[in-house]
Specification:
The protein has 486 residues and is of the alpha+beta class. 49% of the residues lie in helices and 15% in strands.
């Protein structure tokens, strides 16, 4: 605001960071950062306890320190705390002063008629970009000749969102600082870092501790098996993003369905900037059935798509209809070795009825196989790898990759074996080579990505002679692993 900006007119950066005269401002800056990071609040007393000039300068210093930390999670925590503080002050203003303040900020333009506020629908969409539920949707607001009408409470809540989004954009020094002092923002960050080295380290530690503690509570949960919708929302949560309600509901129901303790789920949300323990505990325990007696089911993929939770499917997502199915399919490598080999052979033989004799002959021919390979295996071309009976490292292109769900009836049993498989062909030296179907999608997903990007991929493969019928035996590669590009 103009009155706050005027306080910066005669301020020198070196003095601001080092002069004893500004020691109180520096202390207030650290105080607002530390309480934001730990408790999600900013506790600053106004005059006469704290001088107004010190409060304004402390805010500027806190922005510079934030830029120096280069920690987006911390930035998000502070942005929400500052937005809540601003919301409190906006609530105390008259309608006329509220309009003046909002318009002075220059993000949206608001008009007042009677006791109703209005703005252009484009401004509304921009301001409400992170408020996607219920009445916040533009379709539920009502638009008349391009204008959206709001009550006072809604406008103030909307401005909290506007302020939060604005403050999440760093590294960026306030305009007055950039104009007043020469040098790049990186130079400013360097100067600030020297002054606040110890405090910056402490702030980063607070954020890291919150993230680590939340993940530790999840115990045996395996992130590598979770679908993209879960992992990306979890990444946002860990980065200090306030998730929309559908995302929070999904995370809670998904983990509850995997028998995660409600307390562990509740602590996961402690990394959110707007975390309130009592409210979050009530929601999690109600959804998980601990207090309600009814455990809510995790939403299906169609629901996650329509509610904006799904970030877009990968190759495995296209074969399943529920995120829990994804987690179970990704656990293929945890099955016993004989079961894994049986499922691979079933996927390769592709019979409608369980091929008992063919399976027995192939399993007997293969013998005990544990999917483990020697780290010192030789690197070969596919043509040479096909001639040996041991595992080889190969660098190949993927000519074909296609996922499919396959099922086979169990003899004298009222059930089916369901297998999510991928058929593939490898290319080396202009020649295509057939492979046994993949049932391990931890291997399958990077292979599909390599095919999509038309790039080579390093694999560990081993050839097997597979009997398809009395007159057909084919030598096929089994892909054992994907090697890192390094």
């Amino acid at each position: 605001m103009p009155t706050a900006s005027s306080i910066l007119e005669d301020v020198d950066l070196d003095s601001l960071l080092d002069d004893y005269f500004y020691a109180e401002a520096r202390a207030l800056a650290i105080n607002r950062l530390e309480t934001s990071a730990t408790r999600g609040v900013i506790e600053l007393e106004g005059p006469p306890i704290n001088d107004e000039t010190d409060i304004v300068l402390g805010y500027v210093i806190s922005r510079l320190v934030l830029a120096a930390t280069d920690n987006q999670a911390l930035i998000n925590y502070v942005a929400l705390s500052e937005a809540f503080r601003a919301e409190t002050y906006l609530s105390s203003e008259t309608d006329e002063d509220l309009v003046e303040i909002v318009n002075t900020l220059g993000v949206v333009n608001v008009k007042l008629k009677g006791n109703k506020f209005s703005m252009n629908f484009i401004d509304y969409v921009r301001a409400a970009s992170k408020l996607r539920e219920g009445n916040w949707k533009l379709s539920n607001r009502g638009v008349n000749k391009g204008i959206v009408e709001l009550d006072r409470e809604t406008l103030i809540r909307l401005m909290r969102n506007v302020i939060q989004q604005h403050l999440e954009e760093l590294p960026k020094a306030p305009f007055e600082i950039k104009e007043k002092f020469e040098g790049t923002i990186e130079d400013l960050k360097s100067q600030v870092s020297k002054t606040f080295t110890e405090r910056i380290g402490g702030l980063n530690t607070v954020v890291s501790d919150r993230q680590a503690e939340a993940m530790k509570e999840l115990g045996r949960f395996d992130l590598s098996k979770a679908p993209p919708c879960f992992n990306l929302n979890l990444m946002d949560l860990q980065a200090g993003v306030n998730l929309a309600h559908p995302s929070r509901f999904f995370i809670t129901t998904f983990l509850s369905s995997l028998n995660q303790d409600p307390e562990a789920v509740m602590r996961l949300f402690a990394t959110a900037p707007d975390f309130k323990e009592a409210f979050t505990r009530y929601q999690v325990e109600h959804i998980s059935g601990k207090t309600s007696g009814t455990q809510y089911s995790s939403p299906k993929c169609d629901t996650l798509v329509s509610s904006g939770v799904c970030p877009g499917p990968n190759a495995l997502c296209r074969q399943i209809r529920h995120p829990l199915s994804y987690y179970r399919v990704m656990a293929e490598s945890e099955k016993d070795n004989p079961v894994r080999m049986e499922r691979i052979l079933l996927a390769a033989l592709d019979r409608e009825e369980y091929p008992t004799k063919l399976l027995e002959r192939n399993l007997e021919k293969i013998g005990d196989f544990d999917f483990i390979y020697d780290d010192k295996i030789d690197k070969r071309t596919l043509s040479d790898a096909k001639k040996v009976d041991s595992a080889s490292k190969v660098s190949v292109n993927i000519n074909h990759f296609q996922g499919r769900v396959y099922s086979v009836e169990i003899p004298k049993d009222e059930r089916k074996i369901w297998i999510t498989k991928a058929t593939l062909n490898l290319t080396d030296g202009g020649t295509d080579y057939d492979c046994l179907p993949l049932t391990d999608w931890k291997i399958g997903l990077p292979i599909e990505e390599a095919q999509y990007k038309s790039k080579k991929i390093d694999l560990v493969v081993k050839p097997f002679d597979i009997i398809f019928d009395e007159n057909e035996t084919r030598r096929l590669f089994l892909v054992l692993d994907v090697l890192d590009e390094s």
